[in-house]
Write a structure and sequence with these properties.
This protein is α+β, with helices and mostly antiparallel strands. Helices cover 33% and strands 20% of the residues. The chain is elongated, with a radius of gyration of 20 Å. The chain starts with a helix and ends with a strand.
Length: 288
């Protein structure tokens, strides 16, 4: 599962071979560029009109609530995307991510209010998949319709979520890693936001994808316990509401809670690793 995992790493480590990056900065609480930064972007487009954009990521400082900053980061990404989309080519698997305040903040707040464009220069396009660590024919995607093409392949548990969904057949489930909730609550912890936005990006990219979000809890020896069933269902519902609030049609997402009725390990669990495996969120691929 090298392809999208490699691409994911490139976005965060900045250790690419020939993938470049360009940054524009924003004033506090603003999603439109200043005249100075707009001129920078125009100059960049003029020089890089034959390059190819791989991704656009948006960020904010820590002022304001996390929810507000998530929205502000997305607005910044959308603003930049709308400016450059007709001027610079994009990869078919182009990806945007809105991190809000959830990244390693610099001491200078002004440097955190930014959008970063990742791109490959024209001279390197002949080997763009090599640069991104994507093997030819490793993932089959019909880019004319952005419809997922199923691939018969063993799926690595450590693969990125998009990789798993692409390769998972209809009727099968995918575990969403690193989704954590506050104790005895359906409130999602801030550390889980990047994963939720990753799922949101996938739902946007593949408009035919229909899923059911399934919640599970650990530690309860009674599979019929009403509280556990309700809690797991409320957690799955919270994820659906997040997707719908961000523009995904409600009919594409259903939810169900199974309490502790479908554990991966026998209850009582032997250790925390088994409890964590049982305390999970899965998505059932309903349709592609």
């Amino acid at each position: 599962m090298k392809s999208f995992f490699s691409l994911f790493l490139l976005f965060f480590t900045f250790t690419t071979y020939a993938q470049e990056q360009f940054v524009v900065y924003f004033d506090s609480d603003q999603f439109e560029l200043t005249s100075k930064e707009s001129k920078k972007l125009e100059d960049w487009m003029a020089v890089h009109s034959k390059d190819k954009v791989v991704a656009i990521n948006g960020y904010t400082d820590e002022d304001g609530s996390s929810a507000y900053n998530d929205t502000l980061a997305k607005k910044r990404v959308d603003f930049v995307f709308n400016i450059i989309k007709e001027n610079v080519p994009f990869r078919a698997d182009f990806k945007s991510r809105s991190f809000g305040e959830n990244f390693n903040q610099e001491k200078d707040k002004a440097k955190n209010r930014k959008v970063t464009i990742y791109f490959i220069e024209e001279k390197d396009l002949i080997r763009e998949n090599e640069i991104l660590g994507i093997e030819e024919n490793e993932i089959a995607v019909d880019t004319s319709t952005t419809e997922i093409v199923e691939v018969e392949e063993v799926i690595d548990d450590n693969a990125p979520l998009q990789d798993k969904i692409i390769k998972t057949k209809v009727g099968k489930t995918v575990i969403i890693e690193n989704i954590n909730f506050h104790y005895n609550s359906f409130a999602v912890m801030n550390e889980s936001r990047p994963v939720m936005y990753e799922l949101l990006d996938i739902m946007r990219k593949y408009p035919r994808l229909v899923i059911q979000i399934q919640g599970h809890v650990c530690c309860n020896t009674n599979p019929e316990d009403k509280y556990s069933l309700k809690l797991s269902k409320e957690r799955a519902k919270a994820m659906k509401l997040f997707l719908v609030a961000n523009g995904i049609p409600a009919q594409r997402v259903s939810f169900e809670g199974f309490g502790a009725s479908k554990p991966r390990f026998a209850i009582p669990e032997k250790d925390e690793s088994e409890r964590k495996a049982n305390r999970r969120v899965e998505i059932l691929i309903v349709n592609k």
